[in-house]
Structures are given as C-alpha cells and as structure tokens.
Amino acid sequence: MTCMMWTRPATPGPINTPRVFQVRRRGSRSFGNWVRRFRWRGGTSWALLLPRPAAHSMGRTDGLRYHDGRAHRLRCHSAPVCAGRCDVWPPEMTDPHTRTGGGERPRVIIDPEFRTMDEIFDPDDLGRLAEVAEIVWGRDEPMPTDLFFAEIADASAVVFGRWRHGPTALDHAGPGLRALLEVAGGHEHEDLDDRQAQQRGVLVGSCAPAFGAAVAELGLALALGTQRGIVEADRRMRARTEAWLHEGNRLNRSLFRTTIGFVGCGQISVHLQRLLEPFQPILLGYDPPLPRQQLETRGITPATLQDMFDRADIVFVLAAPSPATEGMISRELIARLGPSQGLVVLSRASIVDFDALVKLSASNGFRFATDVYPVEPPHEDDPIRDNEQAILVPHLAGALPEALRMIGRIVVDDLLDLFAGQPVTRMQYLTDRNRAGLLQTNRADRGWAPTSLVSQGG
Questions:
Q1: C-alpha distances in Å from residue 197, one per residue of 113, 157, 174
Q2: What CA–CA distances, in Å, run from 176 to 153, 241, 361?
C-alpha cells in the first residue's frame, strides 16, 4: 500500500533525539504505524518506521524497504523528491538522492530536467515503481554527466527530460539496459544515438501518448468554436455590437452530421474520433503511410488532400512534422476553403503556410483555429493577432497538469510491465518503420510541446 508520511515538521530538540509521529495515509486517514524521526545536521528529518505496539500486518510505504517485518531502513522522508535539501545521511544507508533501497532489483535512473519530479509523477505512481525497482537520482536538478556515466553501467532503464550526455553516452551502459524513456514529448533528442540503442535491443520510448486526450479535447472545442461562432459572439457582446437569435447565427453551422477531415490519422485522431462520435460525422483521412484498410476499419474514408479540402466542413491538421510534411498545407490547398468551412491546426506550424492562411481566411471568409505558430509567441505586430476569422490559443493543447501527471503514470506502467516480462503498450516506441515520422527535426527543445503527432493508426 502506498502511503505518505505526515509532513508535520520535526519537533525542535537535540540532534538525533527521536520524536514519535503517526504514519498517515493520503487524505489524513490514520494508517496505524508509528514513525520515530531523528533530526540530523541542518534540521533534516529522518524516519524509522516501526510496527505499532499491537499486532499489525505491515504493508509497504512509499519508498521504505522492509527486510524482515521488524527492522526497517532509515530513509530521508522526502526523497526522491527532496531536491537535495538534505545535508547528510546516516552512514549505514546509501545516498538517498541516488538510491532508494538495496537488493538485486532493476535500477531506474530518473533525470527529468527540464521537467520536475512533482510535475510528472504522482506519489502513488512513484511508490508503485519503488516497490519493484531502485530509483536512481530522482531529482529536479540535471544529473551530472560523470555520475550518469557511472550509474548507467548498472541501470535497467533511464527516464530523461533532455539528453545532455552526448552521442557516446550509451558506450558506458551495461548489458542490463533495457529502455530509454523520454518525458519531454517527442523523439527529437539530437545527441541521443537511438540507432545504437535499437541495435543493442534497448527500447526508445516517448511520452507523447500522455498528451493525446488533452490535445483532442481542445481540438473539439476549437472545432465547435469555429462552427458556432462562439468567440466572435463573445467579442461582439463586449463591443456592444452583437446580433441576436437567427441574425447572429447567419454564418454559424452545427457540428452534427458534418464531414470531418483528418490530415494525419495517428493517435490524436483516435482520441478525437471518439469525442466526435456523438456528432455522427462523415470522416475523411489523409495519411499515406497507413494502409487503406486500416483507415477503413476505423470508419475513415481515405482521401487526397485536394478532395478533403473541397469536401470537409472542418479539417484538422494532425500530421507529424517532418521534411516530407513541411509546408504540406499549401496556399493552393487553403485557397479551396470557402465561407462554410473551417480549419483547426493542432500539430506544428511548419506544416501550414501561415501567411496564406491569414490572408486567405480574410478574403475567402473561412474560419480557422490554431494552437501553434511559426514563431512562439507571435510578434506583437503579427497580422494573425488581428485576424477576426481566427480563434487563437497560446499553445495550451497538451499543457494540462493532468496530462503532465499522465507522463509519470505511463512511464511507470511500462516499466512495471517491462520488468515483469510483459509487452509495453503505453508509451510510443521508436521502430525502423515509424522513425521517419517520429524523429522530428523542427524543434530540439520540447519543453513547450503538446505531443509528438505521428501516424500509428491505433
């Protein structure tokens, strides 16, 4: 059972004087064990978990190791998320900031920088991992490269935000390395030799699927906004120029039983398709790498881009950015859109001719919505900021706290399956077949990115 120690500060007193506290489950419900806390130099608290005086069957708590049911190892009460605030640790235990227990178990390096531990890991998920594996480092600060080289020799997996250790880092890895899992949002880590990893049989996974539902949710909201004129109506109400009832709906349309086009039919489209089902749409899809039968099985009719832009009421741009897709949504395609149509851009600005989009939306009268831009943020005098046909969102699609915590959940899910000899299914794994779409070249820094949008069709 995953527990959290009560975070009441240690009672003032001489160093090494034990103070007794109760262990409480999350939600402040008493759990029934007792904690003796020892104060060390700098006021740092350490905890020794002991059985309650009455007979009690003890379970695991978050990160504490039980060896014989009576003797329990001392541990920094806030590791692995204490961010190095402890000054010293008892000599009888390992550094709490690099290891969280003993025994011959898988060892997982967690070095999430630029993200933080608390941002992506729920304590319960960290507790699940700590039950079966040793957590190495587990701090917000970047792991020093020399320490990384030393630790990867015995590591079973590495969880990382930025790959800062160079293309030869895997030369230091031991034969037990089984997975490299990134938590930035995509596979474009320039200094990571992913081919070497694949040749060694090491899985290379991305947390991109964690963002899928959140991105799709915003996509649906933007589609409704373009169809029903919600944002325009709000602007006009505030300007005291609104049109009421039928006059206000003259250019608006229902989303029910419309024709929807997906440019890119990967995971985001899967989530979006589920959200659109109640609207009973006709679905068109463009994704050449996917077999026609795979789209048809999902109820999507394969279409050319020209056909889609002629027929669809709403076109969603979901394709993965790559040299092949750069500028794919061209001026010629955008010019096909008319006043009754809309365009929603969710993947990357490099796929769309934004200059043409801004100009033609005004002249052709179609509405569009976008979460991404060629330059982020757009310059203050960028014409897109004054475009009345547009719904503009400042890259919010995947940046929800729930989506960030989902990163940690799918990382832990796949690590537990991997260590149990089960197939890994939650993260997005690099293969020879999909690497062209997954290795995105337009951004090295994914701190802002909602997700890696890729054609995987499922």
A1: 21, 12, 12
A2: 8, 68, 55
Gap between the Cα atoms of 49 and 61, Å rounded:
9
Looking at residue 431, its pLDDT comes to 83
Asked if residues 304 and 286 have their Cβ atoms less than 8 Å apart, the reply is yes
Helices (H) and strands (E) in the chain, counts: 14, 17
Domain range summary for the chain, segments of one domain joined by +: 1-89, 212-392
**Token pair of 315, please?**
């076109």
User: CA 73, CA 65: separation in Å to the nearest integer?
Assistant: 6
Sign, CA dihedral 293-295-299-305, equals negative
Lowest-pLDDT range of 28-37, 203-212, 259-268 = 28-37
> Using 50, 70 and 90 to split pLDDT, how confident is the model at 207?
very high
Fold of 212-392: Rossmann fold (3.40.50)
In this predicted structure, what is the pLDDT of residue 185? 86
pTM exceeds cut of 0.90 = no
- Does the bond joining 80 to the residue before it have cis omega, within 30 degrees of 0? yes
- Give the torsion sign (CA, 439, 440, 443, 446): negative
